[in-house]
Design goal:
Blueprint lengths: L8 E10 L13 E11 L10 H12 L2 E5 L2 H14 L4 E4 L10 H7 L3 E3 L12 E4 L3 E3 L4 E4 L8 H4 L3 E7 L3 E2 L2 H11 L1 H4 L3 E3 L4 E3 L5 E3 L6 E7 L2
């Protein structure tokens, strides 16, 4: 996969092959292509007519400043999540209920790794819960956005309150744009289409001198784990 194809100034994208390691340093998966945003450079426009929705989504996601990694199936994605949480030194995560996640066996795997899933309650939100974990109902390639639908066990809070948000996205849920997603959901889930939360990268705000400040009104960092099924 190539770098972001845009004529704007966006983050330099550094790709590296990583072996998936468990908390004890043992190899448990195959290599993945991980995107890390570093310094600002200028990219040239390329022809996007042949870009797939997945590639277009990733390009636009990078433009917002989000990080990502892609895996070939839910099992390797689950292992990658365990590694990522271990690297972030998180023992508690504000999260959707395990049944709402797009990866099976997640609660047991996290429990075995000593990581507790905490379900959000507005009257019982601890400031120590600095990481949120959610699934993703859809993604929009044209804007590089995630779509989350609230439901029992699937609060918006893990995606809005913590300073660090991790989202799980099956690649088959990526739509070309907002219109194609709404047309599909209005046929199958019309009650959900009107109450969607759409997230485009980390939260940021410009000051009076147009300097960006991240994490002012939401997560400072959003990391996406994509996987094929």
């Amino acid at each position: 996969m190539g770098c972001c194809e845009s004529a704007r100034d966006v983050g330099r994208l550094t790709f590296e092959k990583k072996d998936c390691l468990d908390p004890f340093g043992r190899e448990i998966g195959v290599g993945a292509q991980t995107c890390i945003v570093t310094e600002s450079i200028h990219f040239q426009n390329k022809n996007k007519m042949t870009s797939s929705p997945i590639n277009t989504f990733i390009e636009n996601w990078e433009r917002w400043g989000g990080s990502w990694e892609r895996w070939e199936n839910p099992i390797t994605a689950r292992l990658a999540l365990l590694r990522y949480l271990y690297e972030q030194k998180r023992s508690q995560v504000l999260a959707w209920c395990a049944e709402a996640m797009p990866i099976s066996g997640l609660a047991e795997a996290l429990q075995d790794a000593g990581i507790e899933l905490r379900h959000p309650h507005r009257r019982n939100l601890s400031p120590e819960l600095a990481m949120g974990l959610t699934g993703t109902d859809a993604a929009l390639a044209a804007s590089g956005s995630l779509v989350l639908i609230p439901a029992p066990g699937r609060s918006w809070l893990p995606a809005l309150i913590p300073i660090h948000h991790v989202a799980l996205l099956p690649t088959h849920r990526i739509y070309a744009d907002l219109r194609s997603w709404r047309q599909d959901w209005l046929r199958t889930r019309p009650q959900d289409a009107a109450r969607a939360l759409i997230i485009s990268g980390p939260s940021f705000s410009d000051d009076i001198e147009l300097h960006k400040h991240y994490g002012m009104f939401g997560p400072r960092q959003v990391h996406l784990i994509l996987f094929d099924e």
